[in-house]
Amino acid sequence: DAGITQSPRHKVTETGTPVTLRCHQTENHRYMYWYRQDPGHGLRLIHYSYGVKDTDKGEVSDGYSVSRSKTEDFLLTLESATSSQTSVYFCAIGGGLATDTQYFGPGTRLTVL
Amino acid sequence: AQSVTQLGSHVSVSEGALVLLRCNYSSSVPPYLFWYVQYPNKGLQLLLKYTSAATLVKGINGFEAEFKKSETSFHLTKPSAHMSDAAEYFCAVSVTNSGYSTLTFGKGTMLLVSP
Question: Cβ contact (<8 Å) for A43 and B44?
Answer without folding.
Answer: yes
